[in-house]
Amino acid sequence: DAKTTQPPSMDCAEGRAANLPCNHSTISGNEYVYWYRQIHSQGPQYIIHGLKNNETNEMASLIITEDRKSSTLILPHATLRDTAVYYCIVRVGGGGADGLTFGKGTHLIIQP
Amino acid sequence: EPEVTQTPSHQVTQMGQEVILRCVPISNHLYFYWYRQILGQKVEFLVSFYNNEISEKSEIFDDQFSVERPDGSNFTLKIRSTKLEDSAMYFCASSRTSGGVFNEQFFGPGTRLTVL
Q: Burial, A111: exposed, middle or buried (Cβ in 10 Å; 0-12, 13-18, 19+)?
């Protein structure tokens, strides 16, 4: 079973920041937080990952609380193309051949 | 930009028939995976493959399933005798290496399998 809890759906206005929360209260010290998204039945797409520090890349920012029990994915200027299901996944870093365990994710709908 | 490709995009088969789903992972990747997603449900891990053998498999990956890397580029999933409940989108993924901390998985566009 997925070790994360996410709201089933969220709305956000186009051009605004979308903040997607994730609870992972049982995360272990060697587990990272990964975010993937799936746009309408396409293959999942990696977004970002982090251990304990906040991370930023060209797609998003990841804010992890100090106790690491929750995190927030931020899409700074959401566009209609960001409408997708967003998955928060915790797993051991590297992971080698480990499969990803997807939960139900958050269905983010960007409103025009 | 390199990408994972999958063929066919849609496969229709009769119950009890064998199907082979094909994937071409990204060329310098070493780890290969299959996932499936039944319509309206979660993406589920099936199997991972490294160094020409299965590394990990889920409970779903029973004796009806097999994987193979028949040459240097293709990675296949075979279902020996399809059931109605095998109808799903099947995603192939690949990742580069276990070296270092991170091992991003790149997913293909999927093959939609319909079992009649």
A: exposed
